[in-house]
Amino acid sequence: AEDIEDDLRAAMQDPGQLYVLYQPIHRASDRSLVGFEALVRWNHPQKGLIGPMQFIPVAEQTQLIVPLGAWVLETACVEAARWPEPLYISVNLSPVQLERVGLVSDIQATLTRSGLPAERLELEVTEGVMVAAEGGEISRLAELRRSGVKVAIDDFGTGYSSLGYLRQMPFDTIKIDRSFV
Question: Are 110 and 73 in contact (CB under 8 A)?
C-alpha cells in the first residue's frame, strides 16, 4: 500500500498517468443516451493499468482522494460542458470528500469555472456512505440539490437497503447493486 501511495502521489504530478473514462448511461425505458459516468483510471508507466479497487482505498486512507476527486470533478465538468448535447455527467463522491465543510463551495466553483450548469452534474455516493452520514454531510447534499445538482445513491442493496430510509435521503437516482437484483 505504501508503494501505491508513493506511486499515486507521483502520478498526480504526472499528466497522462491518470485519466477519466466516460461510461454511457442510458434511460431504461427507451435506451436513449442521457449521460455519462466519469471513472478515474491509472496507467502506471512500469506496472501498466492499476485497477480502482487497488488505488481508491489507498487514496481515501491517505486523504489523496481530496485532490484526486477534485481533479476528476474538474476534468469531467470541463469535458461535459463541451458536449453538443445537454447530457449529464455523474461523478463519484467519496466519504472523505463528503465530510469536508468546503465541499459545496468547491463544487459550485468548479461548475462556474467549467461553465457546466448545475442541473447537468450528478454526484454519486454509496449506500454505505449515506447510512453512515452525519447531519452535516446530509445537509451538504441537500444544499447541492437545492442548487440544481442531482444526487445518486450507488450500490443500493449492499447494506442497509431499507426502502423506508430512502424517503429521508436527499437523492434523485438509485443505482441498485447487482447482488440485490
Answer: yes
> Which of 71, 70, 50, 53 shows the shortest CA–CA distance to 8?
50
Kindly compute the dihedral angle of the four CA atoms of residues 102, 2, 125, 150, in this order, to the nearest 10 degrees.
Answer: 50
Nearest partner of 92 among 36, 148, 142, 143, judged by Cα: 36
Per residue in 113-150, pLDDT tens? Answer: 999 999 999 999 876 666 666 667 888 888 999 999 99
User: Rounded to the nearest 10 degrees, what angle do helices 52-61 and 2-12 cross at?
Assistant: 90
Query: How far apart, in Å, are the Cα atoms of 97 and each of 44, 66, 86?
Result: 25, 6, 26
Distance (Å, whole) CA 24 – CA 21: 10
The length of the chain in residues reads 181
pLDDT (tens digit, 9 = 90+) per residue, 148-157? 999 988 766 5
